[in-house]
Amino acid sequence: MIKENQNFLNRMHVVLDAFVIVIAYVLSWYLRFRSGIFEMDPWYLSLQVYMSVLIFIVPGYLLLYYIFQLYTPKRVKGRRLEAWNILQANTIGFLVFILVLYFKHQTDFSRTMIFIFYCMNIFLEVLERNLIRMVLRKIRSQGFNQKHILLIGYSRAAEQYIDRILLNPDWGYSIRGILADNVPRGTEYKGIRVLGRIDNLEIVLPENKLDEIVITLGLAEYHKLEKIVKMCEKSGVHTKFIPDYNNVIPTKPYTEDIQGLPVINIRRVPLNDPLNKWMKRGVDIFGAFVAIILFSPVMAATAIMIKKTSPGPLIFSQERVGLQNKPFKMYKFRSMIVQDEKKEKKGWTTKDDPRVTTVGRFIRKTSIDELPQLFNVLRGDMSLVGPRPERPQFVEKFKEEIPRYMIKHQVRPGLTGWAQVNGYRGDTSIKKRIEHDLYYIENWTLGFDFKIIFLTFFKGFINKNAY
């Protein structure tokens, strides 16, 4: 039944996508040639010529949507990922469209209209799919279009999976129960009961009442995995495996194939790739230059206020630990009274700290004190985006207390970061900060960097935890 529903949904998606493509194209033609917004050219082609191209555009774009996995099940697929795939597919379509016109020497075909179609189609596709998503999630949250699953094995992985399913009823998953050998029958976790032993799978599978089997064995039971997989595949039931070592191996592990032998790397760091590294460095240099020019009036005003209100140097430098655990001098506008170096190292600034000047309190709260770090970015000590660097004494402390803490030093530290735009600044959870830093390191893309920079302007500058 679920497979039939999924096939129906896929067909509906294809039909709706085709309809949206046509509507976007017709609206684009109207905006270009009939709205009065754009100047009319005396040589423009007829409506019939423009509409005849739809014979190629519609199937071409549907093929691109298929290539970019826009017809895969969307129960747990995020909106942002789907929108990103739509953007990529339409960008490829736009470029191919332009190239075809160039090679066919079609100079009369309006490039402006093609660009309007590109923007219009992305907007309408995202809107259409979000409306469908809302309807499906509403239906699923009411108990319809459910996918019935059975868990094999009781472990941390099983509990974490149940937590997520119960937290998101709109995904449409119904957990029938658990089969496990390591806990007694009747054991319950948030209403999901252990129904029996794993051997009962031989009785359950022939009944053909399940849509999925999810294997959530504990580490000590992995010797049973091969037998369970064989049983599930023999029955034809779709099977998933959720490893019980997700606290060691990341969500997106880097895998290698050595002549048929799968090898899983414990940590995937995209910035170890030379091309990624050079692209990020190029963006850092360009971005730092632009930011220095844009913020130069702010920096000049800050320097004058510091000089007039507190004796001492304008810039305060402090040793931090950076890329590959190497120390460097990080620059900030001085926000405290001049003090002995040993006293300065005693710890973090506290609320109503008497060492902080009046001007210093303002520039710390608004992150203006961090602007000199743009010169650290130019020097190569830092990046615009990355994990925030810490002082050596705290690095020594945290590396013993927090697992995986030192992984953050595999990339350049940043002026802003994923943890900071999510509110983990100042006196907040170090563990949560590290979790966000590791997510950034393992999932880095240039687009992710731009997103963090964008979010910094809206919620990253004002720091309520800065004292």
Automatic annotation (TrEMBL):
It holds the Pfam family CoA_binding_3. It is found in: Membrane. Its main location: membrane. InterPro entries: Bact_transf, EPS_sugar_tfrase, Undecaprenyl-P_gluc_Ptfrase. Its EC number is 2.7.8.31. One of its GO terms (molecular function) is undecaprenyl-phosphate glucose phosphotransferase activity. The keyword Transferase applies. The keyword Membrane applies. Keywords: Membrane, Transferase, Transmembrane, Transmembrane helix. Residues 280-459 form the Bacterial sugar transferase domain. The chain crosses the membrane at residues 12-31, 43-71, 83-103, 109-127, 285-306. Signal peptide: none annotated. It is a multi-pass membrane protein. NCBIfam families: EPS_sugtrans, WcaJ_sugtrans. Belongs to the bacterial sugar transferase family. This is Undecaprenyl-phosphate glucose phosphotransferase. It comes from Dorea amylophila.
